[in-house]
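S.,

Sequence below, as promised.
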Amino acid sequence: MHGFFTYLEKNPSRTGDIPFHDMSHGESFLELAVDRFRGHGLWVLDEPESALSFNGCLTLLAVLKDLLAAGNSQVIMSTHSPVLAALPGAQILEAGPWGLRPRAWSDLEMVTNMRSFLEAPERYLRHL
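The prediction came back faster than expected:
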């Protein structure tokens, strides 16, 4: 992202310069989403949660929800985040040794694992 942010700073949007390098990784990614994810198109995101906090994931969901509500865009996202996988109206495909299969959000392994951890972290932490 460093090189991409350098490119963007040298080629600012019409709304002005955004000092991407003066922000944290998560803040700069969210600024990118808010500033540049506009209009119709295909948006491909590969594990965007790597830069984001819980609240950052919620902010990204709001950006994507608004983008999709306009009806002229599609989002393809690979994620390990139960929060991002909860994008309203998403068609969820779970990848595994079986290939790709449709899944309900609540049936995703990452969701059931996270629920289990949050219910009793000591069950997991005792094995570390």
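The longest strand covers residues 41-46.

Coffee later?
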